[in-house]
Amino acid sequence: MKKRYRNGEIWDFEHEIGELGNREVILGLDGGTTSTVCVCMPIFPFSDPFPDPLPVLARAVAGCSNHNSVGETAARETLEQVMADALLKSGSNRSAVRAVCLSVSGVNHSTDELRILNWLREIFPTHVKLYVQNDAVAALASGTMGKLHGCVLIAGTGTIAFGFTEDGRQARAAGAGPVLGDWGSGYGIAAQALTAIVRAYDGRGPLTILSSNILQTLGLSSPDELIGWTYADPSWARIAALVPVVVSCAEAGDRVAHEILQDSVEELALSVKAVVQRLGLCGEDGKASFPLVMVGGVLEANKRWDIGKEVVNHISKSYPGVLPIHPKVEPAVGAALLGWNFLMTESHKEACKR
Amino acid sequence: MKKRYRNGEIWDFEHEIGELGNREVILGLDGGTTSTVCVCMPIFPFSDPFPDPLPVLARAVAGCSNHNSVGETAARETLEQVMADALLKSGSNRSAVRAVCLSVSGVNHSTDELRILNWLREIFPTHVKLYVQNDAVAALASGTMGKLHGCVLIAGTGTIAFGFTEDGRQARAAGAGPVLGDWGSGYGIAAQALTAIVRAYDGRGPLTILSSNILQTLGLSSPDELIGWTYADPSWARIAALVPVVVSCAEAGDRVAHEILQDSVEELALSVKAVVQRLGLCGEDGKASFPLVMVGGVLEANKRWDIGKEVVNHISKSYPGVLPIHPKVEPAVGAALLGWNFLMTESHKEACKR
User: Fold this and answer.
1) CA-based nearest residue to A178, from A260, A235, A104
2) Strand partners of residue B37
3) Which H or E element spans position A44?
4) Do B278 and A171 touch (CB under 8 A)?
5) What is the DSSP string of B335-353?
6) Do B194 and A179 touch (CB under 8 A)?
7) Residue A49: DSSP 8-state
8) Which of B112, B203, B228 sits opposite A108 (nearest CB)?
9) Do B275 and A227 touch (CB under 8 A)?
10) Which residue ranges does chain B devote to CATH 3.30.420.40?
11) I want to staple A274 with a disulfide (CB 3.0 to 4.6 A). Which of A173, A313, B38, B159 is the partner?
12) Is A181 left (phi over 0), alpha (psi -120 to 50) or beta?
């Protein structure tokens, strides 16, 4: 019963909230490899367009909740804590929650989804609607304001392309982590840059200013020390944090850095094209328009060497109808909007049955 | 004092050995990412040629002792246990040891060497000579019978090329682990194969029989399940164990598997060429002969698709003087011979001083 005891501590604040907690809310969670965000949104009436700005009661942030990266126990603790924090900040308790939409990286299979659903069910009363999705789904919803149509490309520490058709078919590409070839990701870019330093040092590759710039950033004096640095900590985010250095080296004219970014662009574009083709998002003539929601630090780099812009250019050569969207709200808000949409759809269906 | 207590248990057998332990011995250790081997060899008189077969008193085997892979505590325990096992089997105790030559992967920097030396000093009496080397050095010595000249290429779970000139200069290439681009390694080959399965599945890459053959080997029913399988266990050796499946797919004519092996050949050859060029092992005209000791499961594949043979073909286009050697003794014996050579050299120097 250790678990229950821990739950008890996390949820202790609920005794203090009392009647304040009557306003009905939705929790939207975005759990990535680097951080986890939970927002608490009030239930607002079905309307078109959405209220602007969207009413967000509270926002809480925690660390990594990808169970493939930190293990299941740590992932669960992080998710439970961040939900409790968001409810505490909004002055709500669990009985006020109508729905939880948990969109978390590492959900790759229906068994992953079911495991998380079972565990959420231990935390929330039975009337609470629970939805578990891959984190890409919330990211798409953040660009389409809760509508599941089009494709999303995430490129942060990891990368994935995820698409939906209006009739509910879905497809994904990449998102399989660094061992399984997510080369366009922030981790992929930075690992290639570290590799280029080793290769320049041992004579396998050309000289590059990545060597001096990255070693200086890491406070290391020799490429020899990179090996110890790399394996001292298994965190992918720690390596991905070097992407800005690679971008600045490419902007300074370094050929090796430029080629690494160019490879990343091709890999990211390839993921999107694979999804678009499988779902037929481009129509039969390949020219139909479709939204491409672009999310993550690698695509947001507002620099001269703009990876996101190059990815769109690359895709538009095959699919000229691509409509890039840079979301105005964060993925956790996308998850809350998605939860709201699911809830409205279910309510509507139930009302029709009566 | 927990450490001392543990030592006490490991070395308990010494009380039983008594006078039997008077014969002087050398311990040679080869610590790789997959396993660790320790041999116990008697001191034999300086002679040329070596006794054939070499007298080996005992051999013990343990798991991984690369501190980058399993952590420092586990690596130390493994090394201590395997030395104790070899001494126990040979009926010797620590006071009979003249020299220990520990050749272990993960020794990349003088600080790594010093840390292991200090720790060995806690185990052995002060008169015991201690030598710590990267595991590539023992592998070279296993092909040259203890002489440090030429180049060794290891390709097992990991890969490294290491070379020595007769006047004592040394150079290495690769050996920086999977994150830092050891693509020709067993891990590299297998990770590329797993990646090819994911890419075929999500539409980014061509279809390949790697999918059915590897999934069947792993007992998985869908490529989706590969992600969970891959990250369930961080062992690199577990992934590298799939190399034979990749080789058999290439032999069956699969283009994707063939290209993965071809890439591996190019990467491995590039490592050797980088070392040969930096050390000038090929002479000024590039045609001088030099030994290339070839070690590790990837190079030993005695199949139609022979990676080792292709690597030599590739190198000989640049350096026709390459003389491939497949060692007749294992790297741990190479380490013992190296320890014997170091010991003889030191004894000779001391005798000259007198």
Assistant:
1) A235
2) B30, B61
3) none
4) no
5) HHHHHHHHHHHHHHHHHHH
6) yes
7) S
8) B228
9) no
10) 2-145+330-353, 178-325
11) A173
12) left
Return d(Cα A80, Cα B290) in angstroms, integer. Answer: 62
CATH fold of B178-325, please? Nucleotidyltransferase; domain 5 (3.30.420)
Q: How many residues does chain A have?
A: 354
A354 forms bridges with which residues in the sheet? none
CA atoms within 13 A on the CB side of B107: 24
Instruction: Kindly list the residues from chain B whose CB atom is less than 8 angstroms away from the CB atom of residue A199.
Output: 181
In the three-class reduction of DSSP (H, G, I as helix; E, B as strand; rest coil), residue A288 is classed as coil
Cα–Cα separations (whole angstroms), residue B275 to A86, B169, B173, B324, B327: 57, 11, 6, 15, 20
C-alpha dihedral sign at A327, A329, A332, A338? negative
Please answer yes or no on whether A191 and B179 come within 8 Å at the CB atom: yes
Report helix, strand or coil for A31: strand
Strand bridging mode A290-295 / A150-155? parallel
Cα diameter, chain B:
75
List, in order, residues 6 or more apart from A318 with CB less than 8 Å away: A273, A286
Q: How far apart are CA A297 and CA A157, in angstroms?
A: 8
- What pLDDT does residue A53 have? 82
Q: Give the number of residues written for chain B.
A: 354
Count CB pairs under 8 A between chains A and B: 120
β-sheet with B97-104: strand ranges across = B58-62, B36-42, B25-31, B97-104, B129-134
Encode pLDDT of A195-232 as tens digits: 999 999 999 999 999 999 999 999 999 998 998 899 88
Query: Which of A61-70, A217-226, A320-329, B188-197 is predicted with the least confidence, judged by mean pLDDT?
Result: A61-70
pLDDT bracket for residue A32 (50, 70, 90): confident
Q: Which of A202, A210, A225, A259 to mutate to test the interface with B (most CBs of B within 10 A)?
A: A202
Q: Which CATH superfamily is domain A2-145+330-353 in?
A: ATPase, nucleotide binding domain (3.30.420.40)
Cα→Cα distances B250→A154, B257, B305, Å: 34, 5, 7
How far is A187 from chain B, CA to nearest CA, in Å? 10
Cα-based torsion angle of the residue sequence B49, B53, B55, B59 in order, rounded to the nearest 10 degrees: 130
Whole-angstrom Cα Rg for chain B: 22
Question: For A102-112, how does the pLDDT look when each residue is reduced to its tens digit (9 = 90+)?
Answer: 998 878 778 88
| Side chain identity at residue A252, one-letter code | A
Whole-number pLDDT of residue B231:
87
Could you tell me if A159 and A188 are in contact, meaning their C-beta atoms sit under 8 angstroms apart? yes
Bridge partner list, A323: A291
**Which tokens is B27 given?**
């311990």
Asked if the model's pLDDT at residue B84 lies above 90, the reply is: yes
Between CA A32 and CA A158 the distance in angstroms is 9
B326 compared with B300, residue with greater pLDDT: B326
Q: How far apart are the C-alpha atoms of A202 and B149, rounded to whole Å? A: 19
**Residue whose token pair is 């062992």:** B235
Read off the pLDDT of residues B182-195 as tens digits, 9 standing for 90 and up. Answer: 999 999 999 999 99
Q: Do A181 and B202 touch (CB under 8 A)?
A: no
Q: Do A194 and B177 touch (CB under 8 A)?
A: no
